């Protein structure tokens, strides 16, 4: 089962995007931007706090605070059938969230290594505001 899931993830991501480890495709900021451009159905899951999100986030991102006591339930309500790109500020919280995404049997998971810090360092755009924040 794990091997089949890993193979499916690699096929969806493509051999030129990211690195497959433990059933998750790890991507750089540049690879994440390419992924989102090519696959608009991928949900960007920002697991930072609302204030962090409001300070700047990837356009279209859905914010669910990893530290919320309802984090798992909130994520379970999302339609992640198109895959999910998860990130936080630097990668610590989103790395922890990977276990929950796997437990929820999300089929296609991408992790933005280095988080929003890496995204910004790569010169990629963020937007401000909270219109898509959930917590």
From TrEMBL:
Alphabetical list of Pfam families matching this protein: Rhodanese
* Gene3D superfamilies named among the record's database cross-references: Rhodanese-like domain (3.40.250.10)
User: What name appears for this protein in its UniProt entry?
Assistant: Rhodanese-like domain-containing protein
Q: Which domain of life is it from?
A: Bacteria
InterPro entries membership = Rhodanese-like_dom, Rhodanese-like_dom_sf, Thiosulfate_ST/Rhodanese-like
Rhodanese domain boundaries: 38-128
